[in-house]
Amino acid sequence: MGTGYRIVLADDHQIVREGIRALLERHGHQVCAEADDGHAALMAIRKTEPDIALVDFSMPKLNGLDAIREIPRHVPTVKAMLLTMHADQSYVLEALRAGARAYVLKTQAAEDLAQAIEDVMHGKVYLSPGVVVTVVDAYLNGNDIPEDTLTGRERQVLQLVAEGHTTKKIADMLNISFKTAESHRNRIMNKLDIHQTAGLVCYAIRKGLLDPWA
After folding, report:
1. Are residues 108 and 36 in contact, defined by beta-carbon separation less than 8 angstroms?
2. What is the pLDDT along the chain (214 residues), one digit of tens a residue?
3. d(CA 91, CA 139)
4. C-alpha span between 206 and 15 (Å, rounded)
């Protein structure tokens, strides 16, 4: 196809990364770094300044969507592509709103990924055929997703709470004070009107922040 590009590959399953890496290299691309969580992905992107960041939707510590939202603050030239199992309308629309330039279903990656990379690097947006109908239907029906009531930091805290981390551990991971982490947690519960950890876990799963099968 075209020129080979430098890619950061982020997915929390090693076997998936190995398969995607082999696929990318077969098409002449270079995987300059791999990451198994969202924070590690951002660090790798800052360090290597790749052409493309190919990130999974559901990842520990920082999910793919919030990682994509953060990328322009660190390396504005990076093109972000989402690789996911989710074909639901809300996930697709939220990904596009977050700044993803491609939405590639894992089940179609072997057929779609090379074309998606070429399209994205030539200024286009790529959607796997499996989600195109979803997006067209959303447009024709005037559907949209409601604005998220949580801030970016609150989404990060919610994900870490749902993953089972203590408030102290969350404070350490995000480099904030215990009091600030506790304040974020209380605001999340008040905004969502969910006051039990189990309820927050269910909400995080519904929003794609937590993979129940991980």
Report:
1. no
2. 457 999 999 999 999 999 999 999 999 999 999 999 999 999 999 999 999 999 998 888 888 988 999 999 989 999 999 998 887 777 888 888 889 999 999 888 888 999 999 999 999 999 988 787 766 676 666 665 556 678 888 888 988 988 889 999 999 988 899 999 999 999 999 988 888 888 888 888 777 777 665 5
3. 14
4. 25
